[in-house]
Design goal:
334 residues; alpha/beta; Rossmann fold; 7-stranded parallel beta sheet; 14 strands; binds uridine-diphosphate-N-acetylglucosamine
Length: 334
């Protein structure tokens, strides 16, 4: 079975490529390196012992994409490619809509032409907006608070319309909670450009003395210690969720959404303390005001993914914070 992975050199994509190869899949990767680096391909080879078949191209370029489908005997697609920075999407909404939606339409059109109708799509728990009930089930009300989130929700809608028009498609929509950590080799991990927006990469840079201190955005939420609570999931678990999903879409038709989370929420302070304790480092922090658009708490009901796909997260908090720091130490630009 040959899987086309769009955005396969990115954070989640690269870890999924490793697990696909570990599970005996053939992989073809497309990326334009808009938020990743060519060296990831060498690292993937080092980890898997396999040369990765790779095309550097923009997914919006349907002509080039057709060439890939002509050359490669693709059975199914995992679609990661897309812009993902919330703040940037607020200042450049048209760029986000153009890129994320155009690339997906181009991909789905070319897949239709080649009669390849099996796809796993990277969505996000961001489509739940400010959840009314915790833990969050897949049938919760959907809403978004920024253009990035809206691109995810619109694409979910496009996939649902596509399935209504042709029910021979097989589509799995994966709603990720908060992926953190890195592959155990320390060769691949999360490598955001510039100052990180997300908690874990920020903690890592503070612990590594690349940034002076962490700003904790609010300690007056209605949570156990007042700081925001999220469902952090180890990136290798998340990658394995894709293996379960691709196995499922290959063997079934239909469309469905699945939460990929652990079901456990940790507060910002719990994350900081776990990081300090496990890695034996200092993480100085200041409590500052709430960040615009943030919610108090967000964690998954992971049961549906378990019942239907057989997916269950295995890694705990220690492995998340340990692997995140291990990658940072091995790849520090200091
Ligand atoms: C963020 C995005 C979400 C996106 C996800 C991708 C926002 C508002 N939401 O989710 O749409 O799908 O990333 O991974 O940006 N925190 C601090 N200090 C920091 C950074 C974060 O205290 O420097 C806190 C936040 O207030 C939050 C928690 O840490 O309580 C997690 O934040 P983050 O890692 O940015 O993820 P989300 O906000 O859940």
């Amino acid at each position: 079975m040959r899987i086309l992975v769009t955005g396969g050199t990115g954070y989640i994509g690269s870890h999924t490529v490793v697990e696909l190869i570990n599970n005996g899949y053939d992989v073809v990767v497309i990326d334009n390196f808009s938020n990743s680096k060519p060296i990831v391909l060498d690292k993937l080879k080092e980890i898997t012992g396999k040369e990765i078949k790779f095309y550097e191209m923009d997914l919006c370029d349907s002509e080039k994409l057709r060439e890939v489908f002509k050359k490669e005997d693709i059975d199914a697609v995992i679609h990661f490619a897309g812009y993902k920075a919330v703040g940037e999407s607020v200042s450049k909404p048209l760029m986000y809509y153009r890129n994320n939606i155009d690339s997906t339409l181009s991909l789905l059109e070319v897949m239709s032409e080649f009669n390849i109708k099996k796809i796993v799509f990277s969505s996000s728990a961001t489509v739940y907006g400010d959840p009314e009930k915790l833990p969050i089930k897949e049938d919760a009300k959907l809403s978004t608070t920024n253009p990035y989130g809206s691109t995810k929700l619109y694409i979910e809608g496009i996939l649902k319309d596509l399935y209504v028009s042709d029910n021979t498609w097989s589509i799995a929509i994966l709603r990720y909670f908060n992926p953190v950590g890195a592959h155990k080799s320390g060769l691949i991990g999360e490598d955001p450009n510039g100052i990180p927006n997300n908690l874990m990469p920020y903690i890592v840079k503070v612990a590594n003395k690349e940034l002076p201190s962490l700003n904790i955005f609010g300690n007056d939420y209605d949570t156990s210690d007042g700081t925001g609570v999220r469902d952090y999931i180890h990136i290798t678990d998340l990658a394995n969720g894709h293996i379960k999903a691709i196995d499922y879409v290959i063997n079934n038709v239909g469309i469905d959404c699945y939460n990929l989370g652990t079901g456990t929420g940790y507060s910002v302070l719990e994350m900081v303390n776990a990081f300090k304790k496990t890695n034996k480092v200092e993480v100085p922090y200041n409590i500052v005001g709430r960040r615009d658009g943030d919610i108090a708490a967000c964690y998954a009901d992971p049961n549906y993914a378990y019942e239907k796909l057989g997916f269950k997260a295995e890694y705990g908090l220690d492995e998340m914070v340990e692997s995140a720091f291990n990658y940072a130490i091995k790849n520090s630009k200091k």
